[in-house]
Amino acid sequence: MQNIAIQVQDDYVSDFMNYVNNHSDSIIIKKDTNLEYDPYFYERKKELHQIRDAVKSGKMEMLSEEQYEKEIEQFFSELEK
Questions:
Q1: CA-CA distances (angstroms) from residue 67 to 62, 64, 70, 73, 77?
Q2: pLDDT (tens digit, 9 = 90+) per residue, 8-32?
Q3: What is the pTM of this model?
Q4: What are phi and psi of 28, to 5 degrees?
């Protein structure tokens, strides 16, 4: 059995569900709990993996907590000017 994600146009959902019901011996519908909590789960996951890969390869710098605090303080002080 293979798992696939399907996006169905709103106006076609009832027709699609009729098709699934007519072929229920071959198709199982299961809700993805990741998407119930966060509709953009897989997009965010992909982006986080890209960020992690960029940090590991050296293309992106990861700041320490101290560096982050300094940069944020500097940013806000410049905003107040």
A1: 9, 5, 5, 10, 15
A2: 999 999 999 999 989 888 888 888 8
A3: 0.54
A4: -120, 130
